[in-house]
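Researcher: Here's the sequence for the chain we discussed earlier.
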Amino acid sequence: MTVEPGSGPRVLVVNDDPGVRDLLAYILRPWGYRAVAAEPAGALASAESWRGGPDLLLIDLEMTGVSAIALARTFVRRWPGVSILFLSGRGEDLSDSERAAVGGAGVLPKPFDIENMRSRIAAVVEERNRREMGDLVGPVDDLGEGSCVSRYRLLLAEDHEGMRRRMRRMLEPNHDVVGEVADGAAVTDAVRDLQPDILLLDITMPSMNGFEVLRQLARESTPVKVLFVTQHADPVYVEEARRSGAAGYVLKTQLRTDLAPAIQQVGEGGSYISASLRGPGFQPAPSRP
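Model: Thanks. This is the structure I predict for it:
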């Protein structure tokens, strides 16, 4: 398998029919996508060839002897930010349980309508980029309600430059942003070198996702408090953050209202979770000093 060169969105086409998957990849490339076709058994290996994994998984729902839902869930666990579109002869008839299992993925009905496919894929990729770049956070001229009292040394671990700029602009009037990291594999070294009080960590990162980074920090007993700043509102991610030892979890869509109090509470040794995600209570693992 050869990864297509270029800088467009990365699309992995998974189908048990080699003719169909190769045709779809061929159609997608002139539209600006780095499209790769893969058989189900080799899908994960193909995706690993991309630094950071695929942006979009285009997977047939009716493959013989293969559970597309199970395979898609594996992708979501490995790359939490991946978008998914299923190809299905059932049209749009995806069950609620199937959608929930993979984060509300959409469906492209078969037989394919080329223009519909083009517009649907473009819409999914645009929405993913919009979430990742933080277009939903609203104005960022100040911190809004709950300005922080204590000043902390902060390290930003976020792969999108636009989001890092927004966060730095929000934070610098009240805190010292000691550095920025765009790749998960570089976070541990940056924490060790820069010695921040709090690491603001995205979940979807190239090379290593945020959960893997947090576990690496724990293995090496690196002294830093971790606050996830992410687009992922699924309770599964919140629970994984708790189990991994995070002190807080803030949604990118709620930065203006939640980031300032989250930093304050985490910095003081407490915990914080965005209000829209709060259940019976967010109890982090014991904080590292």
